[in-house]
Amino acid sequence: MLQQLANGVFSGSIYALFAIGFTLVFGILRHLNLAHAAIFTTGAFLGIEIATRTGIPFWALLPVVAGIGAVAGVVLERIAFRPLAGRDDEHFAGLISSVAFGGVLIALIQARYGTEPKSFPYEYFPNRLFEVAGLRVTLTQLVTLGLALALMLGLAWLVSATPLGRAMRAVAENPTAARVVGVNVDRVTAGTYALSSGLGTVAGALLALNIGQTDRGLGASIELIGFAVIILGGLGSLWGAMAAGIVLGLAEALTIHYFDSTWKGLVPFALLFAVLILRPRGLFGHIKVREV
Amino acid sequence: MSEPILSVESLSVSYGRVEAVRDVSFSVPEGGMVALVGANGAGKSSVLAAVSGLMRPGKGTVRLDGRDITRWPAHRRVGAGLVLVPEGRQILGTLTVAENLALGAHRRRAQAVPAGELYELFPVLAERRDLPAGALSGGEQQMLAIARAMISRPRVVLMDEPSMGLAPKMVDEVFGVIDKIRASDVTVVLVEQNARRALRTADTGHVLETGAIAHSGPASELLKDPKVVQAYLGVE
Ligand SMILES: Nc1ncnc2c1ncn2[C@@H]1O[C@H](COP(=O)(O)OP(=O)(O)O)[C@@H](O)[C@H]1O
Ligand SMILES: [Mg+2]
Fold this sequence. Notes:
Chain A is mostly helical.
């Protein structure tokens, strides 16, 4: 039972890491970026390819993956969102064009890596097992949880306490007012996508590291629960995404414990609907990115 | 006379097919003050939007120190010292007063007025610096909008109806601040519904009528021009 809860926290931290990147873009720019899952998958493949080819250690791998992810995010915004700015159907059109961008990414992944799963090199990451108070946790899980928490807290700090974060909150509240005070809105928009996609690729690489491998369906497998996390936490709320990620991870783990894994897909969504009936704006719906 | 610090040549601004500003030209010498007056919808805010870079004009040229800045993005103009105090204040209500001021300063960090000095000029803001700006009263928000522009030590300030919607006492305070800004040799373009008061403060006035300049001249003469008085100033 406790073991299941611990596992729930670990997977929940990955859900949360997936979700904060998505919710950040929504909170600042009101964009629903449906290419986020494909960005996540890209991160997993990039991590494996770079680890395999170069053998660089894990601590150096993640910044490289994040950097490539950030560039991909900037390109994504330029191609799928910026050309639509100012259109009446800007938001709906962006939704569709981001789906298309995600489709292109997945097709490129398939062209480059084929359809077979890819694995990290044997023993790329030390396969160590700890026993703490009767719980068995792997080093990978601990590192994942620690990194996920650090990245999420780091993002919350960036948004609330740095000049870039201040500019992001200004754009979130009122883009015209932000321009009046001299904020370069295009640059802040690009920066928001860079952060979001950088976090998304790192989340993908971390999940692949935990599973040991990836295939092109990795993002699709986490996408639904990731969106459930975002809705549960309140769209645009960073703290909400973090808390809801852990909550849904736990809910999933408890489902497996009390029922069996065939129910694992159902209970988190049942929980989502139950919460939304009671609190239509999500657990933290009143706390938006700009108020972090 | 030396070259004007700001000049607007044959400016036209459109919203779709509606031409809101037609062939407007004026200039301001360094340290001078121009008042743009006219009825609601005459195109005053649209002129300021094109000068500040919030809108691309359909035609015409905007020059700062003789340099063509017509295609510059808004943030670059702020960096060059051309700032707008926009209509309706446009303060960022979810950010604190201090954050609003920090945003105002961030493009011109080297020139910026130290926050402490600014708070001496605007004591109400000092008391409220850590509150969300949305919690301020309308008059305080207007003061913040002006302070947010002045903290960057601008060379040219464009003000769009800074007294709009304020109680008479606050209006006096706002014009008091405008007098101080003038005294500090900052160039001012003032758009006001309170045309008489604006013309009393300015050197030069331009009256806009449905997008075009209908009367121009020294402010003191416009104040006496019977056509202007009848149409825009009314009997006192
Ligand atoms: N966003 C807009 N879209 C369409 N028309 C506009 C917009 N803003 C202003 N206008 C039109 O442009 C004209 C000038 O408006 P404006 O510049 O705001 O005048 P003023 O500031 O003198 O009241 C008006 O006819 C107004 O209806
Ligand atoms: Mg106006």
